[in-house]
Automatic annotation (TrEMBL):
Keyword set, alphabetical order: Cytoplasm
Organism, as annotated: Aulographum hederae CBS 113979
Any Pfam family the entry gives: CS
Matches recorded under PANTHER family: NUCLEAR MIGRATION PROTEIN NUDC, NUCLEAR MOVEMENT PROTEIN NUDC
Name the UniProt record assigns to this protein: Nuclear movement protein nudC
InterPro entries for this protein: CS_dom (IPR007052), HSP20-like_chaperone (IPR008978), NudC_fam (IPR037898)
Cellular component terms per the entry's GO annotation: cytoplasm
Disordered: annotated span: 1-30, 154-173
Described purpose of this protein according to its UniProt entry: Required for nuclear movement. May interact between microtubules and nuclei and/or may be involved in the generation of force used to move nuclei during interphase.
Length: 194
């Protein structure tokens, strides 16, 4: 019987596809009028503005689910809906002097400390959050328990995408195998996993 499904890409092909996807993603992010980085707990955005501007020339509004950053009288640099809620009282913005002029630095504190954001505002191109590695997120800043939870989450996410068992399922399978080895007299052919 012919199998019409496309074959899974080889590791080399997957690497190439990932590299292409990453290059496209980087190019999309590079066209944004701001730069942003995130940890699992918060998000930092910076955008350059002319050095002669002062705080009063800016229009910055941070709400629980929205963000607007603009120079008064001009098209907003960012104006949109956030993909997830933030703590407004913990989120801040500052105007900083940098070698190239000035920069607006915005810090957003995530309500959900357990999820990656695919973009700053929902109208912006998304990044592939499944490709974020713990190093990007300063995972070492998290306490042991949170860290192992995040690592398990990320492992499970990767396993799921690859069609492999998650760590819990793997544990159950290992236990079952061990039990089978210890009880060769029992017939496990009908045993159901779940």
């Amino acid at each position: 019987m012919a199998d019409d499904r496309p074959a899974s890409p080889t590791p080399e092909e997957r690497k190439k596809l990932d590299a292409e996807a990453k290059a496209k993603e980087d190019a999309e992010q590079a066209t944004l009028p701001y730069k942003w980085t995130q940890t699992i707990q918060d998000l930092d955005i910076t955008t350059s503005i002319p050095g002669n501007l002062k705080g009063r020339d800016l229009d910055v509004k941070i709400s629980r689910t929205g963000l607007k950053v603009a120079i008064k009288g001009q098209e907003p640099i960012i104006d949109g809906t956030l993909p997830h809620a933030i703590h407004t009282d913990e989120s801040t913005w500052t105007l900083e002097t940098v070698p190239s002029g000035k920069e607006i630095a915005i810090h957003l504190d995530k309500v959900n400390k357990m999820e990656w954001w695919a973009h700053v505002v929902t109208t912006a191109p998304k990044i592939d959050v499944s490709k974020i590695t713990p190093e990007d997120s300063k995972l070492s800043d998290l306490d042991g328990e949170t860290r192992s939870m995040v690592e398990k989450m990320m492992f499970d996410q990767r396993q799921k995408e690859a069609g492999n068992p998650t760590s819990d399922e793997q544990k159950k399978m290992d236990l079952l195998k061990k039990f089978q080895a210890e009880h060769p007299e029992m017939d496990f052919s009908n045993a159901k996993m779940g």
